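Is this the right way to post structure tokens for a design question? Let me know if I should format differently. Anyway, here goes:
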């Protein structure tokens, strides 16, 4: 039971008495050596959370639940949308498999601080590999399973892994794609040589193992099990490369202690979950949401985590929610658009156990959220995230008794505890500008950036004063502390000196029932500096398809003609990143 009745009570407690707030939050974690201090400035100017404390994240995510009698409860429920396979792994099974695999890693010489690169789609084995690293203090680096050789080689040289763990194949739709050719190409290109490769064989496409170099994942699980190693709170748990939507891909380093505390608190405070509840994220485990809410947060909190391989259809999501009594569903706007498209042929969902749905990752237009509310008949809320922060910067707080103002539901919510946003605008009377966060950031956020084989203070994210973390997102903050998001700084369009966010225009166009998705970008304009161009994808089965003039008139009616939208380009698809986000920059070169 959380001690606060209202959002302001909770937020102000973290603001005014941060040491006390975070030391109390830390009681959700089983420590070997409990923390006596919350935050400490490091020699390099960045911050460590719970500096004197020791723990093991894997112990908190797995062993302690078995010791508490949850050994028979499902820890992971995995479904492959490609092969239609299922697997349920109880906490007891998970401990056995993780401890065995960790023993196998140790036998290969992997120890504390060694990096282990994991190139796997969302599989039970991916989670086992991550947790096994955490168990022995190795630092996991999960990369997208679909990277081609050169991209994989770059990651290998960046982190210098002692061991690489890879699946024999991943899937594109129903088609199996062997992964070893990319691995072989990457190893031929990379300067770094790993000591061994571990292959998780899949029935659809087993790989021929290379003698001496390769080991079988499922054989290694039977190695002599090892106990969790005690680590300092500030020892690194993992490195995760940013998607590149926030500049060049950077290796974000996450610690053990701050991460565990922030995630455990968020499960109660934001998602309203308690041990035994079922949490379902549609995110690939290779992205930050998959790390945080596919693996660590639900497991640290003793929940059951539902994970899926491949793009789940609306009917698959419904079935999974229904069959596993999912309480919270966490998905993306892109996934939701796909569900909306497919749901035209389905009746409204009846899912009694489902309490609420969360979206994050990119702009979600209100029309889409309204559709989801009508379809699922549940609260649907948006919250704001970055790979760097590891959990949501702003959110809605379902663990608090205070009822959320409905006016906020379409927005990204109010700051989570410890996040202190401010706006940096070019004119003092301008309410919009770049959103920056006062330092220190709360626990769970980046502990540094990985570069040249070491952890560095993330100076590239600091403003000129060195006191603020730059999010590179634009927005405004209102009197209720709610943050309103306008998009990435480089997506803001300046028309004759006035700022308009592409998102504001997209919101209006997306409200047309025939529009499936749209993206607005700026192009140079000789007279006004910049002007917007809209790229629009139509629903395939809609009768009334609007003309460009009709969509432009809709925008002018709401925002005014000054916006200068003159061009609508109808396209069949929008370019998206491998994590499913629209890449507006690529539209500019197309
Ligand atoms: P990534 O680190 O790749 O997950 O990207 C983080 C970026 O995604 C943020 O800086 C935002 O630009 C965007 N983003 C995340 N969540 C939201 C949201 N709820 N609404 C709008 N944009 C979002």
């Amino acid at each position: 039971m959380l001690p606060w009745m209202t959002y302001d009570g909770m937020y102000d407690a973290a603001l005014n008495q941060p040491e006390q707030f975070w030391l109390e939050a830390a009681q959700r974690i089983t420590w070997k050596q409990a923390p006596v201090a919350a935050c400490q400035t490091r020699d390099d100017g960045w911050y460590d959370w719970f500096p004197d404390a020791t723990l093991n994240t894997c112990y908190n995510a797995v062993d302690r639940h078995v010791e508490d009698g949850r050994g028979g409860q499902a820890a992971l429920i995995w479904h492959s949308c490609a092969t239609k396979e299922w697997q349920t792994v109880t906490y007891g099974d998970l401990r056995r498999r993780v401890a065995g695999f960790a023993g196998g890693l140790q036998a290969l010489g992997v120890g504390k601080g060694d990096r282990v690169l994991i190139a796997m789609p969302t599989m039970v084995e991916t989670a086992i590999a991550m947790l096994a690293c955490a168990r022995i203090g190795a630092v996991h680096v999960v990369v997208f399973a679909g990277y081609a050789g050169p991209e994989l080689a770059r990651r290998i040289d960046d982190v210098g892994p002692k061991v690489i763990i890879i699946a024999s194949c991943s899937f594109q739709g129903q088609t199996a794609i062997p992964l070893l050719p990319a691995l072989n190409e990457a190893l031929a290109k990379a300067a770094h040589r790993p000591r061994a490769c571990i292959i998780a064989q899949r029935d659809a496409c087993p790989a021929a193992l290379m003698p001496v170099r390769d080991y079988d994942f499922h054989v290694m699980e039977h190695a002599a099990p090892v106990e969790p190693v005690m680590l300092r709170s500030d020892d690194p748990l993992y490195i995760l490369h940013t998607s590149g939507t926030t500049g060049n891909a950077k290796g974000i380093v996450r610690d053990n202690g701050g991460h565990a505390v922030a995630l455990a608190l968020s499960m109660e405070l934001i998602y309203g979950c308690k041990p035994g509840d079922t949490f379902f994220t549609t995110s690939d485990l290779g992205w930050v949401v998959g790390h945080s809410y596919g693996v660590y947060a639900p497991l640290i909190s003793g929940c059951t985590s539902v994970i899926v391989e491949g793009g789940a259809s609306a009917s698959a999501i419904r079935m999974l929610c229904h069959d596993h009594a999912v309480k919270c569903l966490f998905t993306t706007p892109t996934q939701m658009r796909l569900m909306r498209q497919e749901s035209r042929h389905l009746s409204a969902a009846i899912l009694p156990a489902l309490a609420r749905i969360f979206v994050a990752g990119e702009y979600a237009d209100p029309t889409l959220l309204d559709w989801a509310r009508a379809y699922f008949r549940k609260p649907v809320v948006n919250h704001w995230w970055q790979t760097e922060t590891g959990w949501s910067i702003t959110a809605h707080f379902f663990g608090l008794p205070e009822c959320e103002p409905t006016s906020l539901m379409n927005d990204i919510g109010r700051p989570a505890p410890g996040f202190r946003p401010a706006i940096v605008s070019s004119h003092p009377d301008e309410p919009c500008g770049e959103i920056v966060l006062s330092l220190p950031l709360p626990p769970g956020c980046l502990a540094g950036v990985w570069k040249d084989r070491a952890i560095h203070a993330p100076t590239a994210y600091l403003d000129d004063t060195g006191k603020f973390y730059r999010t590179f997102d634009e927005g405004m903050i209102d009197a209720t502390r709610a943050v309103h998001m306008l998009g990435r700084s480089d997506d803001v369009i300046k028309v004759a000196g006035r700022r308009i966010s592409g998102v504001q225009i997209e919101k209006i166009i997306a409200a047309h029932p025939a529009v499936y998705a749209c993206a607005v970008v700026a192009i140079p304009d000789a007279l006004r500096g910049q002007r917007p161009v809209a790229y629009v994808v139509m629903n395939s089965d809609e009768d009334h398809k609007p003309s460009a003039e009709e969509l432009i008139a809709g925008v002018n009616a709401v925002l005014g003609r000054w916006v200068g939208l003159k061009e609508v380009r109808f396209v069949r698809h929008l370019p998206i990143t491998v994590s499913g986000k629209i890449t507006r920059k690529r539209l500019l070169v197309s």
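Format looks fine. Someone answered above. Worth noting: The longest strand covers residues 515-525. The mean pLDDT is 92.
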